[in-house]
């Protein structure tokens, strides 16, 4: 199915374009025919949850939402193959009856499976890697319409490049994930002084399956969240939930509209926070609501330098006059061997900063980004950053291998928009 005249927007509304043709293929066969019967630039979109301009195009946009659902599973190996457009929030409930669960995931589950893998989306936990690292096989439709199945034995180079592909090799239609036996998680979320969190986080990360924190720029408090496996009965849903996300949205607009309001709004939010404890199926506990829209920058740094970087970012923002209500987020991610994964070859600290959509994100991001560079950071492909191919090539040991494969699969460069040409093509 194809349509024209519609405007595509990402989740935050920052990125938008008006593609000449917007395809929503209902099958792989239809997708092959569309690619073979067309010319010009092709980009692909899942749920639109990337903050960068990966999906922008004025020519052909492919939406994967109709290529959704479970294809097959292997009970012995604990793997499952799903269509690439399957939303993460649908994947957990599909895996649970099979006795499987995702090894890890982040606190947003709106993304498509292909989008999560294609940008190395991740959660947190020492020894726990990103979605890309769990890819055991994939089906790729090249820009010329060739269908290629890749795994560790057949086309292993396409597997290693395609597990974090940015949609630059073609269109991934199926993904086989390594999972684990299904499990429950117990969550605890609580406030601590930031100085205490920074002093003790390494131990906290070792003591818990998942650990992360959010540090507020205008207070001395940090919000800590830990998750651990549990056999306790699931907790009942509370009769009343404070609409935290709506409160965050309203207070963000006030904080950016009234001088000095960001500091006392942060103090108010932390004062109102009460400790959270809940137990449930893993796919129910991982995600948190995200109705308050924002733009985000994230870099992945060598783990040994992560907390040092946090301290410098916090001090730099505090010295500035910039306003932001959203906190800095800190997570840990294990190393992998996926060619263009930002976690390639090194255990990493993941540091994110955010700005509400009512404010211009650029002053804050421009202030902080050089600090990430100083610590050897690699940008998250789906988040905002200003890197280009000349800098990125120095950060990825398998950069040239990925470039050669991309040129072989897409010699005409159909899968490249302006953003990807800046990221992937050396001058």
UniProtKB/TrEMBL annotation:
Q: Give any Pfam family that matches.
A: ALO
Q: Which domain of life is it from?
A: Bacteria
For this UniProt record, the keywords arranged alphabetically read as follows:
FAD, Flavoprotein, Oxidoreductase
- What Gene Ontology molecular function terms does this protein carry? D-arabinono-1,4-lactone oxidase activity; FAD binding
GO CC annotations, alphabetized = membrane
Which InterPro entries does the UniProt record give?
ALO_C (IPR007173), FAD-bd_PCMH (IPR016166), FAD-bd_PCMH-like_sf (IPR036318), FAD-bd_PCMH_sub1 (IPR016167), FAD-bd_PCMH_sub2 (IPR016169), FAD_lactone_oxidase-like (IPR010031), Oxid_FAD_bind_N (IPR006094), Vanillyl_alc_oxidase_C-sub2 (IPR016171)
- FAD-binding PCMH-type domain residues: 15-182
Specify whether Cell wall biogenesis/degradation is a keyword of the entry.
no
In Swiss-Prot or TrEMBL terms, this protein is called FAD-binding PCMH-type domain-containing protein
